[in-house]
Design a protein that fits this description.
By secondary structure, the protein is α+β, with helices and mostly antiparallel strands. It is built from three helices and 20 strands. It is found in: Secreted.
Length: 392
């Protein structure tokens, strides 16, 4: 091919190259336009999703705020209902405890003088036992801490003579309301006092020396002198009352200055533990008639008041529990048997496990052979190991 022919082909080749280049640019532009459209579509969708997510978030926040307001409303209504229930319970208790004719509990001076004279005549006489009970405490077999309830000082007990499962709780050392739980289970599981029935007494009680015995509550009232009030738990009325025939009474236990009379029960019946200014160092013991509250017999005991924190009676024998000002192990260190069967030197020295402080009350249950104790706000059961007095 000659040179003149190459010159003729050059324009044709240049035109072909320009056409291919134009087609390539058009292809690239089309692809870029499609990509831009897709990017724009993705951006629109992303914006829409972000808007929907923001709207959903705002909706959820609004629902949460509404739920929180409803929860607060329900909580307020529940608290209001609880207040109304408590008020209703107090009103019901008030209506139940109202007596159309309140019994007269004024002191009959003549009757009191006769009681004092009779008691002094029978003081320290030989005691004639009513039962064949001849047991005494050998040791503490087991201890069970139920819970912590109420004040540091108080009293809890069952009926010492009946078969009722009810638990009676006296919170503190001065009040007029007794809490009653239907069974031990309810007392153990529930801490709220609204789970318990309330008995509002016609007169306030003082100390922790009270007793539930055969459907009646025997509690101590202070009105100048100290009175033992017999209160029927079934019909919520005062059955009888008696002024204790002891002049210038003093706290019965050195470590429990709030208790002036300790009413106790055992297999023989009802007892009263007290102290007088006349014999300030030692405790006194009296046998009570549970029906009339008359004192059947009185004894001076050799058991000192100093460092005593509680006492109870088992088979006609007074057991006094001692501790120290700085709480240590409580122990039965003095035993006085009114029948003379058990000599003090032959009694076992019983120790209670060291716990929180000192006992503000110790109630012996003759049917269960265990002690219901209140130790610095803790409610404790001591199960006792018993022996015959002649075997000790």
């Amino acid at each position: 091919m000659g040179p003149w022919r190459c010159l003729l082909l050059l324009p044709l080749l240049a035109a072909a190259l320009r056409a291919q280049q134009q087609q390539f640019m058009e292809y690239v532009e089309r692809r870029l336009t499609l990509l831009e459209e897709r990017i724009s579509q993705w951006h629109d969708q992303s914006s829409r999703y972000s808007t929907e997510l923001r709207d959903f978030k705002n909706q959820v926040l609004g629902m949460l705020e509404t739920a929180e307001k409803e929860r607060e409303t329900m909580r307020s209504e529940a608290e209001s209902a609880a207040v109304r229930v408590d008020r209703l319970e107090r009103e019901v208790d008030y209506l139940e405890t109202q007596n159309p004719a309140p019994p007269c509990v004024e002191v009959d001076e003549t009757l009191m003088e006769k009681q004092v004279a009779t008691a002094k005549q029978r003081k320290n006489e030989k005691y004639t036992k009513l039962t064949d009970c001849s047991d005494t405490i050998a040791s503490v077999r087991a201890m069970k801490i139920l819970k912590r309830f109420g004040s540091t000082s108080g009293l809890w007990t069952k009926d010492a003579a009946g078969n009722s499962e009810k638990i009676y709780v006296f919170d503190g050392t001065a009040n007029d309301t007794v809490y009653v739980f239907p069974r031990m289970r309810e007392f153990t599981l529930f801490s709220a006092t609204r789970k318990a029935a309330r008995i509002k007494l016609p007169y306030p009680w003082v100390g922790t020396g009270h007793l539930v015995y055969d459907g009646h509550l025997y509690y101590i009232r202070q009105q100048g002198s100290f009175q033992v009030i017999k209160f029927n738990l079934a019909n919520k009325t005062v059955v009888d009352s008696s002024v204790f025939p002891a002049e210038e009474q003093i706290p019965v236990f050195g470590l429990s200055p709030f208790t002036y009379i300790e009413v106790a029960a055992d297999e023989e019946g009802l007892w009263a533990i007290y102290a007088t200014k006349e014999d300030e160092k030692n405790l006194c013991l009296a046998k009570l008639d549970p029906t009339s509250l008359d004192i059947e017999q009185m004894w001076d005991t050799p058991c000192p008041r100093e460092n005593a924190e509680g006492a109870f009676v088992v088979c006609g024998a007074l057991h006094v529990v001692y501790n120290t000002r700085l709480p240590s192990r409580s122990r039965v260190q003095c035993v006085f048997d009114v029948s003379g069967t058990l000599a003090p030197e032959d009694a076992s020295l019983v120790y209670f496990p060291k716990r929180y402080g000192s006992h503000s009350s110790m109630k012996y249950s003759p049917q269960e052979r265990q002690i219901y104790a209140w130790d610095d706000g803790y409610q404790i059961i001591y199960r006792m190991e018993m022996k015959k007095k002649l075997e000790v």
